[in-house]
Amino acid sequence: MDILSLRLFLRIATLGGVSAAAQDLSLSPASASARLVKLEETLGIRLFNRTTRSVSLTTDGEAFLPYAQQMIETLETGLSAVKGQGVEAEGLLRITMP
Fold it and tell me: How does 2-22 read in b/e, with b if 16+ C-beta sit within 10 Å?
């Protein structure tokens, strides 16, 4: 399971379609669909009921949604914490010149 696939799952659930989510994440619809199938295979569950005209969360998809949201939020919080370290200098700097 990769981060982009989790983000894709969340965007499909939010936007209500694979094509819209793919466009939002700069993916082709075919690539997005393949990623979704791979994610479902990895999890061993169907996340969405799909027809040519609509996409809706399955019961398993609804159950997984808050966990996927939490995983992405935790990842983003962790990345923000790490990226902020060492960027700015802190403390007292004393320079002596002859």
Answer: eeebbbbbbbbbeeebbebbb
CB 18, CB 33: distance < 8 Å:
yes
Q: What angle do CA 54, 55, 58 make, to 5 degrees?
A: 140
Reported as a single tens digit per residue, the pLDDT across 49-98 is: 998 888 999 999 999 999 999 999 999 999 888 887 665 667 777 777 77
Count CA within 13 A, CB hemisphere, residue 48. Answer: 24
CA distances for 2 relative to 25, 51, 78, angstroms: 14, 25, 16
pTM of the complete model beyond 0.90 = no
Task: Sort strands 48-50 and 55-57 into parallel, antiparallel or unpaired.
Answer: antiparallel
> Could you give the angle at the alpha carbon of 17 between the alpha carbons of 14 and 20, nearest 5°?
90
